[in-house]
């Protein structure tokens, strides 16, 4: 149910950015490394707190601009869920759903094959994407 974090080297992250058409600045590499290798569905504020410890003097604007660049390039995904005012950033760019553990607040990735979803809309509606948030507690 949960995706394993990749352990990417600095050159591998740099190559991933370049391949996506993104200039690999030090800030982008650092934030990318944190999201892809360490964090679990972090918010921008959590990323900023991490940056304050490990990459001093990075502004909140730089964090937001970098996140937008990484989302636009398809390196990460941004999700907004009804349980939080903050967007979360996800390194899993495959189609997937989420399970929210209401006791811990932790989000878990859920493979689409484990959810039976049937949509029957009139032809006038064009679906661009589906977000499913399952809520409960993990045993």
Automatic annotation (TrEMBL):
Cofactor note: Binds 1 Mn(2+) or Fe(2+) ion per subunit.
Superkingdom in the source lineage: Bacteria
Keywords linked to the UniProt accession: Cytoplasm, DNA-binding, Iron, Metal-binding, Repressor, Transcription, Transcription regulation, Zinc
Gene Ontology annotations for the cellular component aspect, listed alphabetically: cytoplasm
Annotated Gene3D superfamilies: Winged helix-like DNA-binding domain superfamily/Winged helix DNA-binding domain
Molecular-function annotations in GO: DNA-binding transcription factor activity; transcription cis-regulatory region binding; zinc ion binding
One GO biological process term: regulation of secondary metabolite biosynthetic process
Cross-referenced SUPFAM superfamilies: Winged helix' DNA-binding domain
Cofactor names: Mn(2+); Fe(2+)
Name by which UniProt lists this protein: Ferric uptake regulation protein
């Amino acid at each position: 149910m949960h995706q394993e974090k990749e352990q990417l080297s600095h050159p591998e992250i740099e190559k991933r950015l370049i391949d996506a058409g993104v200039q690999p600045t030090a800030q982008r590499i650092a934030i990318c490394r944190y999201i892809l290798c360490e964090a679990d569905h972090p918010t921008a504020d959590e990323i900023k707190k991490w940056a304050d410890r490990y990459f001093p003097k990075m502004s909140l604007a730089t964090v937001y601009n970098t996140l937008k660049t990484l989302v636009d390039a398809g390196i990460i995904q941004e999700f907004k869920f009804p349980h939080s005012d903050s967007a979360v950033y996800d390194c899993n760019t495959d189609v997937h759903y989420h399970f929210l553990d209401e006791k811990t607040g932790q989000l878990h990735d859920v493979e689409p094959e484990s959810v039976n979803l049937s949509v029957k809309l009139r032809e006038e509606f064009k679906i661009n994407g589906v977000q499913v948030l399952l809520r409960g507690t993990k045993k």
